[in-house]
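Table S2 (text version). Query chain:
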Amino acid sequence: MSERDGASPAPDANEPLGDLFANLPEPTQQHPTADYSAPVPGSRRAAREAARRGDASPEATPAAVPDAVDPVGAPVPAVEPAVDPVTSAAEPVRPSAEEVRIAPAGREPAPVAAPTAEAVQGEAPIGGGLDALFVAPDDDRALAKAPKKRRRGCLIALLIILVIVGGIAAAGAWAMNTYGEQINDVMGWGEPKDYEDGQASGEAFVTIKDGDTGRPVSTALYEAGVTKTEDVFYDYLIEENIAVTFYPGVYRLQEKMTAAAALEALRNEDNKLENTVSVSEGGTIESSLAAMAESLGLPVEDFEAAVADPAAYGVDAPSLEGWLFPAVYTFDPEVTATQVIQRMVDRTREALAEAGVPDTDAERILTIASIIQREGRTADFAKVSRVIENRLDIDMKLQMDSTAQYGYGSLHEGVVSSSAEALEDDNDWNTYVRTGLPVTPIASPSFAAIDAAMHPEDGPWLYFVTIDLSTGETQFSETYEEHQVGIEKWREWCRANPDAGC
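Corresponding structure-token output:
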């Protein structure tokens, strides 16, 4: 134990707290308002006064200092050594922080003794509130470490906060990736499904067939460029609880119309074109003849007879499939079915010539173009054309679902995938069974599809699959393994969109 530690008497545990604070030593440094009449506890003076009062034990009385000798030889009376308030080894009693906190109300705690010489001469000053004021100088090193502990605690708290925030962000990202479309619908976020008022412009023609209801009309409006999304018109009818009867015919509307404006336009008789018929891109003879007959007021049997002999129009092919160019046509009231078909075949020849197709290669290009039209989106037409050419070059089966569906009679069932029966049916159009091209085109191709068939894009692809039916996003692959990855992406999309007609 150091001398400094042993010099400070311990307080009596039974002494009242008030007396304890009252008996604390007063600072000995001179101050205008301080009272220095009381002796410093532990000093010889304090011991002598205690002995005079009779309350100090002999062991507590320090030995007297012997008389000194004056330089001239005269004895000098013994004098008590002055106690320096800074360098004295006798330290005052320091109350604890708890004793300060429980001091009687209305009574100020006793002043604290001045710092020791060691503290003044180099030891770090003690800080950190009232508790720190009463810590012994030996504990200075521990106090110096306190800020580090606080910094460590702050760092741990920050890490915990970051982990929590990161977890919330990860959960939010998972939710948006999995249920993003549903969340956007509920919250009203994302891209609007309808055009805004004032965006309508240009001209668009929409064909309504006999018996069409809200959903097929909604699809026809979208395919004609009238509405922004395929379902927005149908959803509008359901949400507004609107009952409407659609009359067959061709209607002149505008592009980029709102669902409400499109409905109003379809109800306006002035927008219905008389003696007008249309053939849709990717449509077939079977899907087009009935609408032609109804729009022109002619028997459907007249049209069936008109398409029976391709040679009558100079076409050397088993049928006129693919030769009825997709467009909107207006005829005089006295037009016949044969004249209607002749007009459409002539328009196909114009498109073939514009794309640079030789007459001798017309049937082949139309057949490839019809598959392109049914299998891909316009932006991918040239790549789909390359896949077909690459497979034909190595005698690899085309295995196009659209050809199997056409040969089986299920092309217009509104589904993307083919049934097992359609894929296995042995007919002249099923490219899952036969090598090479189908015996005839399978639909009416647009000019864009004809041009792509004539000018395929360069590339090594042998496979492609549409992995997102809502956007038409398609993956093109060179190997079968890559293609399998694309098929799994398509299956995942179909599982997430069970009503999409996969």
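Notes on Table S2: The chain has a mean pLDDT of 78. Strands lie at 68-69, 75-76, 201-208, 249-255, 272-273, 276-278, 328-330, 463-468, 473-477.
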